[in-house]
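Support case: pyridoxal-5'-phosphate complex. Customer-provided input:
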Amino acid sequence: MTDVASRLADVDLRIGEAARAAGRDPGELTRIVVTKFHPASLVRELHALGARDVGENRQQELSSKSAETADLAGLTWHFIGQAQTNKARQIRRAARVVHSVDRERLVTALDAAAEPGEGALDVLVQINLTDDPGRGGVAPDDLEALAERVAAAETLRLRGVMAVAPLDEAPAAAFERLAGYAERVRAVVPEATWISAGMTADFAEAIACGATHLRIGSAITGPRPARA
Ligand SMILES: *Cc1c(COP(=O)(O)O)cnc(C)c1O
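Agent response - structure generated as follows:
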């Protein structure tokens, strides 16, 4: 077994344990492997091991790696980083799911970037769980307005919410709040049932609080190499 294979198997074991401990079916969880800073060859290795969901947080890396791995069957790219509106077209070309929709201008840009006849793009509204506006995500007060804006965009499909745990708070407490925000979004769009939460350090807590999509990087890929 390679290092990546054994780390992937170990993480999946821990996901299964956390799900069972929370009385949940591990089969209802989507494990996204975050491959940022790693080469496309790692995406190939992961695909050969059965991974089908991969994530990137920078548009350029998303675009280049998705192009380099376009031959891999059944691969789904998730964009999880801060998105610039002038990159909406490239993001839309490369990703099937955008987790980080945090403002109305980005909704407009992603909607306008659709090609004629293209299927709807799955999007999640990213919520800021801190008081620091620099951390990314919509403020909870503005959540319903943003969800309504996504729901009204013809080429976007609102699937749920995404968040990153704050650095200065126990993740379980923050993810409890996220579960409440997710409920508020479901009051706007009942089908928006996804909760994207949980990274290497806190995926067990996220699973306990109802996460459906886990974004796990270094626990599977190993330490990130320095940026080229
Ligand atoms: C890098 C990243 C992750 C994965 O982080 P790890 O701690 O390596 O698991 C998850 N979500 C986002 C938004 C990220 O940027």
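The chain has a mean pLDDT of 97.

Case will auto-close in a few days if no follow-up is received.
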